[in-house]
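Example record

The entry below shows one chain as it appears in the dataset: sequence first, then structure tokens.
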Amino acid sequence: MQRPFAIAALALALSASGTLGGLSAQAQTAERVYDDGPVWTISQVETKPGMFNDYMKYVSTSFRQIQEAGMKSGRVLGWKVLQVVSARDHEPDVILMVEYKNMAAFDQSPAEQEAITASVFGSVVKSSQAAVGRESLRTLRGSQTVRELVFK
């Protein structure tokens, strides 16, 4: 008696896979209407109580110098600092966005990164010490790397 049930189940499975297979083939028939655009890094930062202005001082000096060096080299197209209005406890109140020319420009070698940070902070060691010091000002709540899609 289980045999008719097994045949019916197999027929149902084949029927469903044929239907779904047809749908997935249809989904790929649309022409691509976009090109790959710039790459963005988006960092979500929660400043610690009473430390917003101190963190903004870092952003307006060292962080800014690093971004301007990237712009001078042609890797960075632009950057933005956004303040979240009415952020709740343990949510980011600052968003840092950096726009890179493309994925290759974003994918910088460690040696290139160290050269830029050493030029801003004086040395790689001082850069590392500054990174530790920033922990007293803020908590990084998340970061994303995304690619902008530019419609044709």
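Notes for this example: The chain has two domains: 1-30, 34-151. Residues 1-30 form one domain.
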